[in-house]
């Protein structure tokens, strides 16, 4: 039973995340999506909300589970018995930071491999940050996110709500 961890902010989950997740779910027995509960990062949705949205959006993938974690990723991966960390690569701009993080994680836990997957090219420009910005300004983001996220963003940015 080979388990992989897909960590990230997922604030909120987008179709780009889901594309990576579907690819990973074909490679591993189980993929555990790990929502980072990181107080130093400013987020729109609470860790519980992000987990709930992910659970709804990944219900069609039987070998995917969702949880949140605090602290060091390598510690969490060890506790979960995960063999690999999945990260998605969009453009060259992602590479520098991802490269540093993968090497740092390897020096902290040599047995844990980081695997980079590329999403379909239609999602290479897609990020949670961009989706939030467009939605906040009233733009249509339905084709970039699962329905539950579209509804959650519309509710969050409904006129009268002060964000
Ligand atoms: P983090 O704050 O850890 O980068 P994100 O939720 O932004 O969390 O991203 C989690 C992972 O998913 C990262 O590896 C990121 O590169 C990847 N990812 C996000 N959006 C896309 C996308 N559109 N295509 C491919 N990978 C993506």
Secondary structure elements and pairings:
Layout (H helix, E strand, L loop, with lengths): L2 E6 L6 H13 L2 E7 L10 H11 L6 E6 L3 H8 L3 E6 L2 H17 L4 E6 L9 H9 L10 H10 L7
Parallel strand pairs: 1-2, 1-4, 2-3, 4-5
The protein binds adenosine-5'-diphosphate.
Relevant terms:
163 residues, alpha/beta, Rossmann fold, 5-stranded parallel beta sheet, 5 strands, 19% strand, globular, binds adenosine-5'-diphosphate
Structure description:
With 163 residues, the protein is α/β, with parallel strands linked by helices. It has 6 helices and 5 strands; from the N terminus they run E-H-E-H-E-H-E-H-E-H-H. A 5-stranded parallel sheet has the order 3-2-1-4-5, sandwiched between helices. Strand 1, helix 1 (15-27) and strand 2 form a beta-alpha-beta unit. The longest helix is centred in the middle third of the chain and has 17 residues, at 92-108.
Mean pLDDT, all residues: 95
Give the terminus-to-terminus CA distance.
Answer: 44 Å
Total separate domains:
1
CATH superfamily: HUPs
Oligomer state of the chains in this structure: single chain
What radius of gyration results from the CA coordinates? 16 Å
């Amino acid at each position: 039973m080979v388990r992989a961890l897909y960590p990230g902010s997922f604030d909120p989950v987008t179709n780009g995340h889901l594309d990576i997740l579907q690819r990973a779910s074909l490679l591993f027995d189980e993929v555990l999506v790990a929502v980072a509960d990181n107080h130093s990062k400013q987020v729109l949705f609470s860790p519980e909300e992000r987990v709930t949205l992910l659970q709804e959006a990944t219900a069609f993938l039987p070998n995917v589970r969702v949880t949140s974690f605090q602290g060091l990723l390598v510690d969490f991966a060890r506790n979960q018995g995960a063999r690999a960390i999945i990260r998605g690569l969009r453009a060259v701009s992602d590479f520098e930071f991802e490269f540093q993080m993968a090497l740092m994680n390897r020096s902290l836990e040599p047995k844990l491999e980081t695997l980079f997957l590329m999403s379909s090219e239609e999602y290479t420009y897609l990020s949670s940050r961009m989706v939030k910005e467009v939605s906040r300004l009233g733009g249509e983001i339905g084709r970039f996110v699962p329905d539950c996220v579209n509804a959650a963003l519309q509710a969050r940015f409904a006129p009268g709500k002060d964000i």
